[in-house]
Write a structure and sequence with these properties.
Length: about 300
């Protein structure tokens, strides 16, 4: 089966500096007709499996070449499947080479610093993959939807105005530029679930006792702000998708679609770094031969 993955990737990437509307992105998208509908799920699962295997090899190369690190940022509404996507996509990778950080409501200590502080501390070191499950983008999303969160930050002279959000977009772009310039590749995923599908998943959590632990009544309250969130996401993605740190709008109503897309884009991002295995020089080769002689002589 032939499928143009580059075309799909381009379609999902938020083009820097171009008008961007979330309405142009269908959360239920599951292929463009290149593959018969009944075969798509199986095909996507095949893609996921081969990308998971690729990622394992590439992570080893990332580690061995010890030059770049990779930061993957995940943002989404509740129940969009961030956790599941991270779990499946990273399932083949050596756990020592990956660090996942989930950013929750900031602590008092974190609120006493600038909003990038807690994230800066978790940026991956050279050779590793860092995953942010939520991130400093919450600062232009949940904080934008709820004024009181901005007030709690007690920043002199800062009010919930459009200038504040524009300033934050600038700071984020500058921060990401700094990271990329210093060897951290960045890729950002917005898992785009529809309001209808979110309702379905919440109801499933309520209906199935073994999913109750996942259910939080606060999520249902947050859902009432859906339109404000979508507006905040739309503006944030438009303002912060750059050549070096692009956003991808990942269709998330079908989990098999979102997982295959995330794995494919992440693998392509690391492949794009054109990493090379460290060269073994003559001196090292001689050491290896000497080690063989010693072992064989035992
Ligand atoms: P789950 O899928 O398990 O619900 P989650 O990422 O939603 O995962 P929660 O503990 O439910 O995790 O929620 C974390 C909450 O913290 C989110 O509602 C998020 O908006 C909030 N949060 C994260 N960063 C900030 C921030 N900087 N300021 C205020 N709230 C934040
Ligand atoms: Mg939650």
């Amino acid at each position: 089966m032939a499928i143009d993955l580059d075309k799909i990737t381009r379609k999902l990437r938020v083009a820097p500096g171009k008008p961007f509307r979330l309405a142009d992105h269908d959360p239920g998208w599951a292929g463009d007709g290149d593959i018969p509908e009944q075969d798509r799920k199986e095909f996507a699962e095949g893609l996921l499996a081969s990308d998971v295997a690729d990622l394992a090899r590439m992570q080893e190369l990332l580690w061995a070449s010890d030059t770049w690190s990779v930061l993957a940022i995940f943002q989404a509404m509740d129940a969009a499947g961030k956790d599941g996507a991270i779990k499946h996509v990273m399932s083949g990778v050596n756990p020592q080479g990956v660090e996942v950080t989930s950013f929750k409501k900031p602590s008092e200590e974190e609120l006493d610093h600038t909003f990038l502080w807690r994230c800066m501390k978790r940026v991956p070191e050279r050779g590793r993959i860092g995953i942010f499950n939520r991130s400093y983008y919450e600062e232009v999303l949940v904080v934008r939807v709820h004024d009181r969160l901005l007030e709690a930050q007690r920043i002199p002279g800062v009010r919930p105005t459009s200038k504040t959000w524009a300033d934050r977009f600038d700071d984020i772009n500058a921060f990401e530029r700094h990271l990329v310039r210093n060897g951290t590749a960045i890729v950002k995923f917005f898992l785009n679930i529809s309001r209808k599908e979110q309702r379905k998943r919440f109801l499933a959590r309520i209906d199935e006792p073994d999913k109750h632990w996942k259910f939080s009544p606060a999520d249902v309250a947050e859902r009432q702000h859906w339109d404000a969130y979508m507006k905040a996401y739309e503006e944030a993605l438009a303002a912060t998708s750059t050549e070096q740190a692009p956003w991808y709008v990942v269709p998330a109503d079908k989990k098999w679609v979102s997982r295959a897309v995330v794995a494919g884009v992440l693998a392509a991002t690391i492949r794009g770094l054109k990493l090379e295995w460290p060269a073994v020089d003559d001196a090292k080769r001689r050491q290896i031969e000497e080690a063989r002689r010693l072992l064989e002589a035992e």
